């Protein structure tokens, strides 16, 4: 069982599955640590909310008759549903300006001249990019209205290699409505395309209206169809939620097997995995492909690596004692420095303080080392890198304030069910303020707000029942170190939604399972949650 512990810092989801299999075996043998009703309550409350959550966040406009009457095979639309929401004009002197305004019937209006400077726009575009394949032919099309007698435009296929203007067809489809389209075969080196994108080629119009845009594979346009919304289906949401609850319960049971292993070997396996991950992250830090980016290591995102590092340091401390915990804190501190995760830094400082207090009579000797290190970093704050801005309200922090506002709006709109697990990014796309610093976001950057936004009051109630039961259990067992690890996980959740990430969630459950099984073994009594 030391191998899954080695995997935990590298591939926590893989390690969780292995521990889950062990936990399933213990449950079948009636040797688990219990706690099933807590996971069941969380699973049911969150799951019921998903059934009643909105099936679609988009209110799609009714298609006009000239679009509904189109016949023939329909190719898939590669554009996202909200593709035209960020349509804007551009000229060489002003840059971007003159954002499109929705006017109904699926159209968005653009002025011919930049409203701020009065200069004529030379191009109209959205800054959405889509992957393309060399040798494949693609067609851009959209419907257009304008207020003049004559209007001329040219579609351009702007790829990662530059502009590719192509001959453009402008076909009348109804009085005052045209469909513009053009095709382009991707060349060697083309791998992404910005769409839609077209040039102003003259005319006597003052404004134009663009709607019903499409990007498709083929040499001519097919009938309009909606693209992907990015929304998660009910089946996906239920599978994700129920699967995470079930695996979490089994990992909790599997943590009981750790009491049979040698503490120093367990701590050593975890620390070795952390060291390997640190080495890989340091390589990323100096590698050209990652130049200018924060290294994520083997995780999807740098903050997740930092958060995992803090939780793993706490697990090492719990399994191996203070000396191993001190070494793990040092390695996790380096991982946090590499990733620049400021939320992880705050969690690490909390864990460091609790570890220091637990040193007993040695704490005052260690205090001099810690205070000396603090003074050294205060004298040379640049050594901290991005962590020196942990208390700064920079653009990243300001963008989170906006994201939190949108999350609160989602909860107020759907107070019981939220918008559905996995759907907050879509809701943010629809409702983010104009000019928001972050055009997209993967989550609400706060555990509580994210639960409210995606799961509503039912999911939050389930989580509070689960958390209250766990805390009550640990308090009865006087499990101070595990309580400290719970507190660290909650601190991390103040600035990010990482609680249910494998490196945080399953690490915490392993700690819970280990301590509970060990306590039962020592006192020859079963302390399961009723």
From TrEMBL:
User: Per the record's keyword annotation, is Transmembrane helix included, yes or no?
Assistant: yes
Q: Which UniProt keywords apply?
A: Membrane, Transmembrane, Transmembrane helix
Any keyword Hydrolase?
no
Transmembrane parts of this sequence: 6-28, 35-53, 240-258, 265-283, 303-320, 327-356, 458-477, 483-516
Q: Which InterPro entries match?
A: O-antigen_ligase-rel_domated, WaaL-like
Q: Which Pfam families match?
A: Wzy_C
Main localization is membrane
Q: Which residues form the O-antigen ligase-related domain?
A: 328-464
Which is one Gene Ontology cellular component term of this protein? membrane
Cellular compartments annotated: Membrane
What topology does it adopt in the membrane? Answer: Multi-pass membrane protein
Q: Which PANTHER family match?
A: LIPOPOLYSACCHARIDE BIOSYNTHESIS PROTEIN PA4999-RELATED, TEICHURONIC ACID BIOSYNTHESIS PROTEIN TUAE
> Can you say what this protein is called?
O-antigen polymerase
Species of the source = Meiothermus ruber (strain ATCC 35948 / DSM 1279 / VKM B-1258 / 21) (Thermus ruber)
